[in-house]
Amino acid sequence: MTDEPLVLNTVGRNPNLYQTVSDQLLAAIRAAGLAPGSKIPSERELGEQFGVSRTVVRESIRHLAAKGVLETQSGSGVRVANVGHEGISESLELFLLQRGPLNPEKINEVRECLELQTVALAAARATDEQLQQISAACERMLGLEGNAEEASVADVQFHRAIAEATDNELFLVLVDSMSEVLMQVRRATLGEYHRCTIALEQHRNIANALQQRDAVAAVEAMRFHLADSLVAFKRTL
After folding, report:
1. In the list 8, 10, 83, 160, which could disulfide-bond 51, CB 3.0-4.6 Å?
2. Are residue 175 and residue 64 in the same domain, yes or no?
3. Which class for 5: exposed (0-12), middle (13-18), buried (19 or more C-beta within 10 A)?
């Protein structure tokens, strides 16, 4: 998309004026198709166009920066942020932590919705190179028995490689956004005796089905893996 001038209008007064300015500024950024790194007008210019004080503009920019939409850099003004999965992941982790201990059943329901679909699509869409990457990611768990941290990272990489092979970047964003939450699950389960070996064998079953481009077998192998992981996670609790 090409960058277009921001179209901004004065806003009416209300108790949450900064929120109104934030909403309209975000809408203007979307309408103009501003790419990451694009500079937005100064606080003075925004204040004049919105018809509000610089204090309100500053608070609005802070609000959008906290949401990961804008980034402020000393000496270079305010720019459109390059939004990655990290902000989503942190927000999701904080959301869950505020609501108490992780609920294994709910986490598994979300994983099933997401990962049964990604593995089915990967079986149909993955390139030969991506299938090789999935197999390579699978084998990274070999020899990591007793090292829960490294095994957890390798586990994440395997599931991420499958999402990448769907040819749908939104699946990759969703898988990435859950990575920190699921790292907690993996650290707990992969710390159990022989759990890494079991997970590796299940990953190999999934990878082998994908190599054969057998979507039905890949989905069933993934379903079994998620169900077994759920049982293991419940044991740790």
Report:
1. 10
2. no
3. exposed
CA dihedral 131, 137, 143, 147 (to 10 degrees): -160
Would you say residue 164 lies in a domain? Answer: yes
Domain range for residue 47? 17-80
For residue range 111-163, what is the model confidence (pLDDT) as tens digits? Answer: 999 999 999 999 999 999 999 999 999 999 999 999 999 999 999 999 999 99
Structure tokens at 103: 């609920």
Picking from 26, 57, 80, the residue at the C-terminal end of a domain is: 80
Residues 102 and 174 in one domain: yes
Q: Are 77 and 42 within 8 A, CB to CB?
A: yes
Residue with tokens 């992941």, as numbered in its chain:
89
Please give the average per-residue pLDDT across 38-55, as a whole number. 89
Nearest to 84 by CA among 98, 71, 102, 101: 71
- Give the DSSP per-residue string, 136-201: HHHHTTTT-TT-HHHHHHHHHHHHHHHHHTTT-HHHHHHHHHTHHHHHHHHHHHTTSTTHHHHHHH
Specify the DSSP element, H or E, that contains 71. Answer: strand 70-73
* DSSP code for 33: T
What is the Cα–Cα distance from 188 to 77, expressed in whole angstroms? Answer: 44
User: Could you read off the pLDDT of 86-102 as tens digits, one per residue?
Assistant: 566 566 666 666 666 77
Q: How far apart are CA 82 and CA 71, in angstroms?
A: 9
Side chain identity at residue 165, one-letter code: A
